[in-house]
Amino acid sequence: MAHVSPIETEAKLTCSTELDERELLTWLARRADVTGPVELQQRDLYLDTRADELLAAGLAVRVRTSAGVRSLELKPIPLERALVVQREEMVIALRAEEDPGDRTRAWVLERFGLELSESPREVLTLATTRRRFGVTVDSTRMELCVDAVAASEPHGRRAAFAELELELLAGDVAVLKKLAAELARRDGLAASGGTKLERARAALGLGGPRHGNKPPPVRGEARLVEAAQQTVGAWWATARAHLPGVMVGLDPEHVHKMRVAMRRLRTALRVYHEAFDPDLADDFRQRLRAFGRRLGAVRDYDVQRGALPQWRARFVGVPRSGWDDVDARLVRRRERARAQVLGEIRSRAWAELEQAATRCLDGAQAGLRHTVAASAPRLVVRRAERARRALERLRDRATAEDAHALRIELKNLRYTLEFFAGVLAPTVEATIDALAELQEQLGEIQDAVQTGRLAGELLAMAPLPTSDCAAALGSLVGYGRAASQWASALALAACAHHELESVLEGLDRIAARES
Q1: Which of 90, 170, 372, 391 could form a disulfide with 74 if both were Cys (CB 3.0 to 4.6 A apart)?
Q2: Using one digit for the tens of pLDDT, what is the confidence trace for 462-480?
């Protein structure tokens, strides 16, 4: 039986040879009550398949031996690098006769529906000497560990590194974040940006998680069809690489990054439309759109859950229990949306999407002789014209929907410029940056509008909300309605600030010079 621990909140920092532990503890004692140390030894044996299937799914699985007791531990490997991370940890006791690889294979299949090609075996071993201190600031209790780690792998390679870990035991996470930020500025310490497994793999030359690669820059002399196959193939590989992480569901960033890869794919299929059979490309694009919408529903709830601390701070008159109920409703809706994604993956729909991708890539127009250099200017102008028309519609109709439509066109334009950046004038990089900033601002407007819409749906959910929950949701409905009324004005102001018309005219000039 697996035991799921509370969410683990911790900061990881690398330690260099310049770290003076005694001086660090003296500094820390002026800010907190410090007890310890307690010294202990830990031995962790990390498991994976020969194809690194657990790593690809964003999972770190280890057999830990401490004080003579063996346990199997599973943690997600966060995609996003942050000083302080929060993640779920699952632990299962291992019987003396139990094979940890076989148990892992059965566990991830039962828990996540992730079918491994073989039972995982030892990838590397970490032997850790840990000095553990208790740290208390006001009513917030933390544990500070200074770890000396010796890493090894079955083929004989060895490496060593030191790490400082600060974990929240009870109290306010903001206190831990503040202390972690102060520690990261100390001599000999720096934000780690990775887990022990990732650091050990890098030190041993085993490489990190593989979640696809951006397509390499296109060459001007390359044929357009070759660039099309390269771009579409690379983003399709990236989307597929996040599939195991989406299935596991412990890190919402896999949903986000898979969705972004699919958006880029759809843009690439439009931009390179003449390089592919039109019927095959359209079939692939429509299937991507349908699956992307499923992912988008999950992502919407992730975004709203991430904004809850902001709403708590903004609407201070709403009791905390009201926001807790809102979160519970978001979780229920998210799980329903996630179940639909998993249903698609396990149905014929995903297999048909893969087949559509293969047919599209294999059906590229081999006889097309246009080069990238000859084609890129007109393809950029075409996308810029679509953005210009979207801006005109926003001015004419002034709706929140038009603001959102402009954002989508600008995103597609930015993707197009990124596809061809290697063959356009160097000034296009500044244009890409400007479009990214404008797109982000328009995205914030759309998120606010979306907040009101989703809050209205949560109000209608059964059972009826408590009065505190209704107050919270009512605040968000009002906020969203106000955002919707002001969306067009705010969007036009952002376009004026970033001089969008001049940016689009500049693209016309770049295209004219390159043609």
Answers
A1: 90
A2: 999 999 999 999 999 999 9
Q: Global pTM? A: 0.92
CA distance readout (Å), 274 to 229, 270, 279:
12, 9, 11
Nearest to residue 44, comparing CAs of 69, 62, 59, 58? 62
CATH 2.40.320.10 assigned to 3-203: yes
Would you state the pLDDT for residue 24? 94
DSSP 8-state secondary structure symbol assigned to residue 276: B
3-state secondary structure of 274: helix
Hey, is 204 helix, strand or coil? coil
> What are the φ/ψ torsions at residue 316 (nearest 5 degrees)?
-70, -20
Angle, CA of 59, 64 and 67, to the nearest 5°: 160
**212-370: which CATH topology?**
CHAD domain (1.40.20)
Q: pLDDT digits over 219-267, tens only?
A: 999 999 999 999 999 999 999 999 999 999 999 999 999 999 999 999 9
The pair of structure tokens assigned to 469 is: 């929950």
Helix or strand (DSSP H, E) at 126: strand 121-137
Instruction: Kindly provide the b/e burial profile for residues 50-86, where b requires at least 16 CB atoms within 10 angstroms of the residue's own CB.
Output: eebbbbbbbbbbbbbbeeeebebbbbbbbbeeebbbe
H/E stretch holding 43 reads strand 33-48
Residue 431's identity, in one-letter code, is T
Q: Take residue 438 and report the two structure tokens written for it.
A: 């404008």
Distance CA 92, CA 90 (A): 7
CB atoms within 10 A of CB 24: 19
Instruction: State how far the Cα of 253 lies from the Cα of 80, in Å rounded to an integer.
Output: 7
Distance of CA 215 to the CA centre of its chain: 19
> 3-class SS at 272?
coil
Closest CA to 101 of 89, 88, 117: 117
CA atoms of 277 and 269, how far apart (whole Å): 10
